[in-house]
Amino acid sequence: MFHLVPTMLGTMPDLSVFQFNIVDNIFSMTVATMGAAALFLFMSRSSVDEEYRPALMISGLVVTIACYHYFMIRHSWQDAYTLAGGTYKGSGAAFNDFYRYADWILTVPLLMVELVSVLRLEKVKAASLLTRLVIAAALMIALGYPGEVISTPEGWTMRVIWGALSSIPFFYILFVLWVELTNSLATQPVAARRLIEIARLVLLITWAVYPIAYAMGGTVEALTAKAGGSVDGGGIVGLQVGYAIADMTAKAGFGVLIYFIARAKSKGLGESTRSSMSAV
């Protein structure tokens, strides 16, 4: 039998000072990165054409939500540990990892919206694409959650099953986005095409980190540590660091890339308008 906990780990594995600090520091870096990206995106809206400003607004909202949740994750991490005899031991307070899933359920669909918004596809096509992507994103997160909260080595098989089920909508999203981004290249301004090609690679590479981090948290050592066994917490450290790096790249980094695409398309539209006026 396996058992589920409500993503609040009451018994934390012992960590070295280095292990604790690397997680704490990556959380701090994530908060700063998301906050800085939010300011940049909100303040840069006036530098793109009006039709692309909603995409930047959504991008800014994504990183603002992520900034708040990582602020809460970091404080929960600090509260869950106390330094004793040169080692960080569980304080008895629960580490609430649910903040991350609460963040994903809000921000992942919004990431789909911001990307489709900046592509400026036909309304009917954009609506169909968004519907499929948002449903797939919700399924991906909902199916991954039960596996994420499995906290005993006996539940390893079920964690793998939930992870595999979550991977179906995960790969569907990547496939659809890759195809749509590729198909949209012919209709995009020349200045934006290279950036959209880069966006395809950013999606593929950064999203690939999530299943890797999920797998690191599902090793027998990591699950034993979750269950309170005296096992090194390297798996949990890898999971937290992996997710944080992926989130920074997929949200803050991708948001800045959305800005550059919007700016390039704005310039392209401006140049097209000026050329048409000159021809007249």
Notes on the protein architecture:
It is a single chain. The protein has 280 residues and is mainly alpha-helical. It has one domain: Up-down Bundle (Rhopdopsin 7-helix transmembrane proteins). The protein is 75% helix and 5% strand. Helix 2 runs antiparallel to helix 8, helix 5 runs antiparallel to helix 6 and helix 6 packs antiparallel against helix 8. The chain starts with 7 loop residues before the first strand and ends with a helix.
Helices, strands, pairings?
Elements: E1 8-9, E2 15-16, H1 17-43, H2 53-79, E3 81-84, E4 87-90, E5 95-96, H3 98-119, H4 123-148, H5 156-184, H6 190-216, H7 220-226, H8 234-279
Antiparallel strand pairs: 1-5, 2-4, 3-4
Helix pairs in contact: 1-2, 1-8, 2-3, 2-8, 3-4, 3-8, 4-5, 5-6, 6-8
Span between N and C termini? Answer: 76 Å
If helices are DSSP runs of H or I spanning 4 or more residues, what is the number of helices?
8
Shape, principal axes of CA atoms = globular
CATH class categorisation: Mainly Alpha
Low-pLDDT parts are 1-7, 270-280
Range of strand content: 5-15%
CATH topology: Rhopdopsin 7-helix transmembrane proteins
| Helical amount | over 70%
Structural features:
single chain; 280 residues; mainly alpha; Rhopdopsin 7-helix transmembrane proteins; 8 helices; 5% strand; globular; disordered N terminus
In brief:
With 280 residues, the protein is mostly helical.
